[in-house]
UniProtKB/TrEMBL annotation:
UniProt entry tagged with the keyword Transferase: yes
Domain Histidine kinase/HSP90-like ATPase residues, every copy: 199-306
Molecular function via GO: protein serine/threonine kinase activity
Species per Swiss-Prot/TrEMBL record: Actinomadura harenae
UniProt protein name: Sensor histidine kinase
Pfam family, one: HATPase_c_2
Domain of life, source organism: Bacteria
Keyword Transferase in record: yes
Keyword terms of this UniProt record: Kinase, Serine/threonine-protein kinase, Transferase
Domain MEDS stretches: 7-150
SUPFAM superfamilies in the record: ATPase domain of HSP90 chaperone/DNA topoisomerase II/histidine kinase
Entries under InterPro entries matching the protein: Anti-sigma-factor_SerPK (IPR050267), HATPase_C_sf (IPR036890), HATPase_dom (IPR003594), MEDS_domain (IPR025847), RsbA-like_anti_sig (IPR047718)
Amino acid sequence: MSQAFSHRVLPYDRADDLLDGVLPFLREGIESGDRVLAVTTLAMHMLLRDTLGADAAGVEFFESDKWYAHPARYLADTLALAETAAWQKRRLRVLGEPTWARRGPLELLEWQRVEAITNAAFTGTGAALLCAYSRSLSPGVVAASRQTHPETTRGTSTLANPGYQEPWAYNARLDATPLHPAPDDSYKLDIDVPDLYWIRAYVTNFARRTPLPEDDLQRLLVAVTEVVTNALRHGRPPITLRLWLEPGELVCEVTDHGHWTERTGFGLIPPKPVGGAGRFGLWAVRLLCSTVQIRTGRDGTTVRLRLQVPAVVVPMPVNSA
């Protein structure tokens, strides 16, 4: 793959501003024989189809809400497409309009983290990613886009972002914010003996008192097993597991008194298969959970797993009168 990987942000105020940057990007890919994807809203799909005319046949259209449903899965799926295209001597070219509305503060941070890590994960793929950001988004989201994208697109021009931060430095800055303490009334299990059967039973007992679906419980059990195993291998006692509920989420936390070190950023990038077989590790934990938060230092290590739980609907009483 001779082309260099590019990751650019396209800030826009109006549809005309968006099209001025998007159309040259898409048409260049169509003419070059790239695999061209437009991941946007349905309204933008219609506008692009009308504007591109016959050229729209060279573009694959996907909905933003589905494409950007989960940070780690998005990264894995898009990276796989880029690597497959490179193997086929083609270039993956993606116009993306990430979904920022209706996301809570923690979700926003995780997606901003993914935008930053993209610059490390896609190195060598030759992919071209153009991310559209409406200036109607919150100022914090727009400002972060300039820190997580090396370049800005304006029409056919490309400018370097002076505020761009190297991905691991950006990630470290996010992780410098301490986690809030676990609630005093959280369920607590001190892990004195590495009995994974009892640990899974303890987690199951708590989770089945919550609205967490059974499929998600099984994902949680696999993730907890991996995290506890890491704590036993790389951490130091005492090791403690805590469980509690927050609005819309079940939270499971594992703490130990060791300082973890890992060169791959604690599973932020999909690991390459070794000897023809994949590794599990913290990357798969991120795939299994809604969000994974890790803090490590001289005072110990905390891994906090979050899974979304559906809202409980209380049925209205039947009027028997």
